[in-house]
Structures are given as C-alpha cells and as structure tokens.
Amino acid sequence: MTTTDSTAGAPKQEQFDTGRAVLLATVAALGGFLFGFDTAVINGAVTAIRDQFEMGAGLTGFAVSSALLGCALGAWGAGRLADRQGRIRVMLISAVLFTVSAIGSGLAVGAWDLIAWRVVGGLGVGAASVIAPAYIAEISPASIRGRLGSLQQLAIVTGIFVALLTDYFLATAAGGAAEELWLGLEAWRWMFMSEALPAVIYGILALQIPESPRYLVARGRDKEARRVLGQVLKSGVDQRLAEIKRTVSIERRSSFRDLRGPALGLLPIVWVGIALSLFQQFVGINVIFYYSSTLWRSVGFSEDDALLQTVITSVTNIVVTVVAIAIIDKVGRRLLLLVGSAGMVVSLGVLAATFAQARLVDGEPVLDGAAGVTALVAANGFVVFFGASWGPAVWVLLGEMFNNKIRASALGLAAAAQWIGNFVISTSFPALSSVGLSLAYGLYTFFALLSFFFVLRFVKETKGRELEDME
Fold first, then answer.
1. Within 13 Å of residue 101, how many CA atoms lie on the same side as its CB?
2. Which pTM was predicted?
C-alpha cells in the first residue's frame, strides 16, 4: 500500500509504504509488550512468593522493585551498545535476557535467587525501552512517526493487561497462586515462565526485520541503508540517504562524552529528555497499577473485585492509548502533553482532596458514599489523561527529539532516569501512604502542575520534522 501524506509544516510530501512501516514498527514495539508483561507479571505472585520464601515486608518490596534497578542499568548501556552492535542485536540480547529471566524466576529456590533473576529480566526491559523507540523513529516517515512511535506505549499497556489476565487465569486454574498447577510446580512459577513464549517470538521476529538505515550509514554500509529505506519510502530514497549521511558521523561511535554541555555538564536537550522521563514517573502513574488495591478496597471492593477493577483500568489505558495514536500526528506532541498535564492536575487534586476527608478504620482510609465514587472517577480520569498524553508522547519525543549523533546515548540516559524515577516513586509510596494517601496524591498533583509549566517553557514541537533536522 502506497500512501501520499502531507503534514502542515513539513518541508515536502512523502510517499511511503504504510503497511511496511507499520510492520517494522510493530515488531520493534514487541519489546514494549515484554516490558509491560515483565513489570506487571509479579503482581499476581507477590503473596505466594512472600509466604513460600518467608520474606518480610522490606524484602518483599525489594523483590518487586528489584527489576527496576536492572531496567535502569539496561537502559544506561543499551544506547551505546546499539551504536556499536546495531539495533537488531540489542533486540536479540533483550529477548535472550527475557527468556532466561522467565525460566530462572519460575524455578527460583529462594528470595535472593528470585531477585537475581528479576534483575536479569530488568536488564532486558531497560534495553528494550531504549531500542524500540529509537528503531521506530529511525525507520518511520516523518508524517506518521508519532503514530508509529506511540505503538511502544500501546505495546507496554497491552503487555500489562496480558500479564494480569495470565496471572488471573493461572491462579484460577490452580485454585490459588500458591497451589500446584502443572509438573508439580506452583501457579506463581508458571506466571513467570509464561513470559518465555512471547520472548522467544520477539527474538525470532527481530531476525526478520532490517537494521536501522542510520546505523548502517554510520557503519559505512550505504547500499544496505538504501535498500532498507526503499522498503518504506516509495520516492526520495537518495535524498533521504544524503540527509542521513549529512548528519551521521561515520568516523567514531557516539558515547556519553557527546552529551556533555554547558548546562550542569549536559546538553540542554538532554536535560529536557531526562526531565520528561522523570515527570512521566513523578506524577505517580505506576502507583495506580502497583498499589491500586489500596484505593479500590478503601471504597468497599473485595480482593477479587479489586483485581477486576485493575484489569478494567488496564483496558482503559489501552483504549486511550489507541486514541492518542490516532491524533498525535494531527495535534502534535506538545499540545497533548499540555492537555494531559492539566487533566492530571485536576484528577490528582480531586484524589488528594477526597482522601484528606477519609476516615481511618484500623489504620486504613475508608471512603463512604459519594466520596468513594468520586475517588474512582478521579483515579480513572487520571489514567485517561496520562494514557492519552504523557504515556505515548514521551516515548515518541525521546525517540525523535535528539539529533543522530547523540540519539542512542541520550535516549539511554533519559530512559535510565525514567527507571530510577519509577523505582523512587514505587518504593516511596508505602511510606507516603502510611502518613496519608492525601499526602501522596498531593505530591503527584504538584509534579503534574510542574510538568505543565515545564512543557510550556522548554519542550518544542517535533511534529512533521525529519530526524535529520533535529539540532
């Protein structure tokens, strides 16, 4: 299928094969699916693991969040590795790490054994979180790059949803996560090992897609780069190749030295990427998915109903991400972020105010009547505004806002910051909530407000611009 597209502000018309572009982006985004699956699959296994390995609250919390430390390390090194070995090889390494972690976690014999395997999986998650948006940005025509880049976030939320469904199915089949299911192994072990199947599929499919043309040019393999560009573009291949050669240095590989600048040791654009990553986490989105049972049970849901509500929230996240994919190349990244920030300020502010009025029963907040309904609506409103804006738009921007010379390294640094932010928010929430949920949600409201003014002041629109024009 050949499509001619013209975007306002774009320097010229593009003719491209939409189907081929979508196919390549979808395979790359499978790393995002594993990203979401790996970080969510432990939810259904936490209680069974804690009981079987006799872990205290602190060790249990570390077992859950330990993967995030691996994610930060994987993201930190993935950019440079991608510049040395290529985008496809990093995808394959990620697939291997996912597979090894899935099997190792499922066969773990103790708490620290499990934590080690979780960190291994985190390395794969971190690498995938860098390589998917970079590859998608580098093979996408400018006029649909936002929509294709948003596939990363769609894959992540779909992976979370599938992981929750898998946990529910396996626990139900066994009569509980701690009960034996198949081959004498408990259901929680199969929850982890279930990730091996999509991990293997990801590795096989990664071998079927071509290397990034920008990596090929950087390695002096211009003929291969022209062939890859020709698979997506139907006109202007030589012109695009010339543009890439103009901006890609083939003398040396990029490194973190290239990110140095006058602004506290880094280039200003790198700080913008880091800040976008941190704001995406500091608004507290993962609290909704990691600790939502506290919220749902406080408004009267049973444990089973709380799990069902979490699944419904995941579906909501998928739906609004699809909406974002449909509009991001029309309205632009910057406007989406601004609208999302404003919506999150309102919804999080309502949550903070509602829980400030909650009564305590055995130390737990309880919302009665209309207050409970208000909290539910506000929480889902928060998910809607985040999922339609900061969820996909940040990944799109990180994949396209840096110039070719620093893209992989800068994206790796920004993604590492994102995982560290995730770790900080995830591990601090229990302490904050012990003081009061209104304090936690009030803090997230503050960061959402800051994010609005940050975007207004520092984030530039990239809609319709070629990667070679990013300076």
1. 31
2. 0.70
